[in-house]
Amino acid sequence: MFASETHKPTVMVIDDSADNLHLMVELLKEEYLVQVATHGEEGLRLAQSENPPELILLDILMPGMDGYEVCRRLKSHPVSRNIPVIFLTAMNEVHSETKGFEVGAVDFITKPISVPIVMARVQTHLALYNQKRLLENLVKEKTRELENTQDVTIAGLATLAEYRDNETGGHIARTKNYVRLLAENLRDLPRFRGELDDEVIHLLYKSAPLHDIGKVGVQDRILRKPGKLTYEETREMDKHVLYGRDAIREAERRLGKENNRYSFLRYAREIAYSHHERWDGTGYPDKLKGDEIPVSARLMAVADVYDALISKRVYKPPFPHKRAVEVILEGRGTHFDPEMVDVFVDLEPDFMQIALDYADHQEELETLPLCA
């Protein structure tokens, strides 16, 4: 490093010629911090360090690894892929420039160098690089703002539904974490490999809290009834899946997101509408069977039932974890997807830990581990 003013942009020169390095350092040091490397391996190490340069001047003809290969490796590494590379070369054939652009260079400077050309091109490409970084940061910031707005909206709507029901905010936190845990451990199984990737699992985690959003449309006398519901009241309660689906579908329509694979609204709608379907076809509202039930809804079915069992309600005390696991096992192949139950059993200590981490009542903390 040949300068001490830390606010200066950093330019790296990679060249096997000591004379060329000395020339470039003398030329650039007044306006830039200058790093030098005498071979490709050293240049790659510096460019992919914690403090990479903002522009690289790279010789093409070097012993060992030539400039083309250095540039190719720079562009394949996440730390250095966006750093602009200008080739320094005595070669002026058209095919050399074509190959350089193909491997990712942004410009060429032909030796013997012209000082004004070098300074102008370095300045131009640094300005473009900084402008690109600024735009990327703005996009990231706007994306974060949008995601935060989505998260706050989801949390608010989910909390509204829970406040109207006998359930609590802890139910929201627990079920979305159960869904993510289960999905992450199913993704590599053959039946789920095409359904679950990182983005889908993230969207499932975001949308899971809206599984009971339709309960805002159910009358309080039914929703908050402490005793057993009548047949007619049960049928009315079951309509919450329709209310939830219709509300989310309208949001999809207004946003133009109908059936978009990477929209959280798609998974929210599937979950809200189908999480009471059963593997054997005896659930509601459509009596879907087996793989006809969306994966998202099958995941929520396991998460929702487990959490309902281990949670305190006005109409029942919390079940111990062991008893909840037994109930899930009893529903293998009838209520629940058999493979999901098998993975759930492997993960039962993790499910219990999530339940403990987000418990609402002291009674749940005391009861849950009993006989586990």
From TrEMBL:
| Species of the source | Nitrospina gracilis (strain 3/211)
Q: Which GO terms describe its biological process?
A: phosphorelay signal transduction system
Q: Where are the transmembrane segments?
A: none
Q: Which GO terms describe its molecular function?
A: hydrolase activity
Q: Which UniProt keywords apply?
A: Hydrolase, Phosphoprotein
Q: Which residues carry this modification: 4-aspartylphosphate?
A: 59
- Mind telling me which Pfam families this protein's record contains? HD_5, Response_reg
Query: InterPro entries from the entry?
Result: CheY-like_superfamily, Cyclic_di-GMP/3'3'-cGAMP_PDE, HD/PDEase_dom, HD_GYP_dom, Sig_transdc_resp-reg_receiver
Residue stretches making up the HD-GYP domain: 146-360
Q: Domain Response regulatory: where? A: 10-126
Q: What is this protein called?
A: Response regulator receiver modulated metal dependent phosphohydrolase
Q: Which PANTHER family match?
A: CYCLIC DI-GMP PHOSPHODIESTERASE TM_0186-RELATED, CYCLIC DI-GMP PHOSPHODIESTERASE VC_1348-RELATED
